[in-house]
Design brief:
By secondary structure, the protein is of the alpha/beta class. It is built from 7 helices and 14 strands. It has a 6-stranded mixed beta sheet, covered by helices on one side.
Amino acid sequence: MSEINPRNIVIGDVHGHYKGLMTLLEEISPDSEDRIYFLGDLIDRGPHSSQVVKFVQESSYKCLLGNHEQMLLDSFVNGKVQPSVLQAWLYSGGHTTLESYPKGRIPLEDLDWMQTLPTHLDLGDVWLVHAGVHPEIPLEEQTADQFCWIRQEFHSMSQPFFADKLIVTGHTITFTLPGIKPGKIAAGSGWIDIDTGAYHRRSGWLTGLDITNSMVYQVNVFDNYVRTLPLEEILMPIQPAVRLPRLSKG
């Protein structure tokens, strides 16, 4: 089957794994016409958060706000440190982000850039968000609390949130969902999750999804192993009754 171009490619939670991201992009080999989207959580836990942020800032690629960027922003409000939020962020991997910057100081321009990141993007028949949506709250009433943090209510939806859009998320490592093996993409009612746990020793997989051609690109950040395969070969439903979603072509 011939490839459709240009491609829309979505990349899951990088979490500071700059070298893995560069290997993944080399495998994807995007050209100037391809559109690349990051689902947020560029930072924390991995060793090179500052390099990841700089790369995405200087690229033409779009990026969503993740809960880890939100925690960082909430730690410093109007130039003042918020001690309890700061401690929660540091505990959640923020210390590695600080260590990735010279003298542990995050430039104001990086924080300002994170402030501009959208919480979601509508690509027509595909809707991108970091964590998901609350099935019982109208979309226009939802905030970053839902878009960046939600888990159980979203993953347990029995009906798709959108009748005509597939939701693509990161945020929740797929192997933490029922019946999903490490490195697999999880599917629920009207959504798929591509956070395959790049930072986690049980997985190490960083995932890029070509939603135009239903192809998956992955690199294991711990051993640099790369693989490319059709989405249907790596997509797993979180329960047998869930029908695997199909991506439209083009």
